[in-house]
Amino acid sequence: MYKIAREKMPQLYRRIAENKELYLPLEIGGQANFAVWEEGDTAALDVLKTVKSPKDAFFPQSENLYTCKRDGKKLSIEPQALKEQEFVVFGMKACDLQGVQVLDKVFLADPVDSFYAARREHGTIVALACHEPEETCFCKVFGIDCADPAADVACWMIADELFWKPLTGKGEALTAQVCDLLTEAEGAEETVEAEKENIRRIVEKLPYMHLSLDGWNADAQKEKFDSPLWEELYKPCLACGTCTFVCPTCQCYDIKDYDTGHGVMRYRCWDSCMYSDFTMMAHGNNRTSQMQRFRQRFMHKLVYFPANNNGCYSCVGCGRCVEKCPASLNIVKVIKKFSEEKAAGGEQQ
Amino acid sequence: MQKLIDRIRELLADGTVARVLGWRTGDLPYNPEPAYFECEEELQDFVYNGFCGANLSKYMIEASRLEGKTLVCLKPCDTYSFNQLLKEHRVDREKAYIIGVGCKGKLDIEKIKKQGIKGIESISGAEIEEAAESLTIQTIYGEKTCAYKDAMLERCHVCKGKEHQIYDELIGDSSDTTDADRFAQVRRIEAMSPQEKFAFFQNELSKCIRCNACRNVCPACSCRKCVFDSTKFDSSQKANADSFEEKMFHIIRAFHVAGRCTDCGECSRVCPQGIPLHLFNRKFIKDINELYGEYQAGEDITADTPLTHFTFGDAEPSIVGERG
Fold first, then answer.
1. How many domains would you assign to chain A?
2. Which helix (H) or strand (E) holds B144?
3. Alpha carbon of B225: minimum distance to chain A alpha carbons (Å)
4. What is the ipTM for the molecules in this complex?
5. Residues A234 and A271 in one domain
6. B212 contacts in A (CB within 8 Å)?
7. B142-187: per-residue pLDDT in tens?
8. Does B227 touch chain A (CB under 8 A)?
9. b vs e for B136-161, b when ≥16 Cβ sit within 10 Å of the residue's Cβ?
């Protein structure tokens, strides 16, 4: 275990940025989001949740796949180079880490997504424990401990000191690069344990942390799919893509050609199951109503994904969708509505 | 709120209306959602408080297609949107029973959280019975207070007034919460050099994540199919790839709603990235006021609209060059 004083953090950023890209939560235009740190930028490490999740670092909202160019009668194709630059994502939270685990199951499974795999290979994650989790958090529901993030390096911000604990080979290598800025923290285990206990005590008090996922499993697929509750639940939905675009696990994308005037850029970009052109095929769209699109998002996260991934849900309880939905809808309300209905059904019997 | 619920119950019971469009109590102290209520039993979840900022007018497009009348709760500023939709033949007046609900300014949870208030357990002072000076917020990190004014939505600081423009009946008192100049920020931007303006909008619009929340919530964006959703429209659409296209989306949208936008402020309220989208619309409103005379969309449904009616006194295109 090592530590560094908060006021020395810019030195730490500078050192890392010497030979790596450094992603940090930065406040840009009043909103905290992960972005590449540059000299003079102030990190917003005290912000619990960035607006977007850090998934952009591994799976950017849009990326080029290849470019075709026309020069007279000559056509050329330029493949997109894979990520080779080493980078560090600093300040991810335990829920965000679990988000990356979910993305791994999708993109690192056969056939491996080479763009994603290259980024995973070259990225080092420095995670930060959640000093003061909030009422929109429900990570514990998915077995995530926000007091003890298991990344390449785990950190705790306690008073004005950052405690730093490398956990993997990548973490050790990064530690070696910055070791003269860190000091050995003797007796720090105790301080960190106290902080963990404190965080866990707060977690117990938060309203969403005791949500029950009872009944959300592969066996319930048909029952959930056919439930009349969706008709009621989807109604306020504006069909925007906010929930999907702030989510750390939503992984659907679209691939399109962009006419550059003298060629074509084939790119992929995040898509949203809330959009009417999502999964549009030659015969049309297989989901024809907003109710179906709305249902798809929650069925995917809570039923289909765990059914295909040994019970692993593709929600991590970060609560970003809870905070950002323009109609105040969210996955928690959906889960609760089904639980209430079940309880009411039980009473009637 | 009790008076409102009692009256709603009455209208549902006697069959005047088939359903009610209002807000359902959230599961946090600040997240009620727009909802339909079809029977008395469901009304136990009905709520109307300071966090009911959502403008329900646009939901009336769908509700106009349903059997029977829909009772809709509209705040004074929401009625401008309803009127505008009526003028555009997008809603059916006969299908709506409008209760004009009182409003003393609506709250923005983001503004409360920006003050460092987190771990919220309960909020008092957001009820609408009396105009509270401040909110008392219980959090797991202790009790906090926040002045009501400091937690109000941007649009409430430039309130359009306490009068409902269209209603069947009124319940509750309203007050004009204006304490700022509606066009002050537009003027500040107008005074910038072209380079400064570009940098300002570049900075704001580069935050856009193409979620379409602004478009989908906008009562003036009522096209059945948006050009930006067309698979045949050759743009990078949701790619968020190109700063030109990002600006194009917002600028085309602003042009498309010019003269019809009532300045309801929903676009800025819902933007997850806090982009002050209303500034585009307000610039158009300010220009319309200056070039064609004072005009407020949604105020007078019978009035000629400045951008769709020709008069010989209209501004010539050369005005663009003259005004700079």
1. 2
2. strand B142-147
3. 10
4. 0.93
5. yes
6. 239-241, 275
7. 999 999 999 999 999 999 999 999 999 999 999 999 999 999 999 9
8. no
9. ebebbbeebebebeebbbebbbbbbb
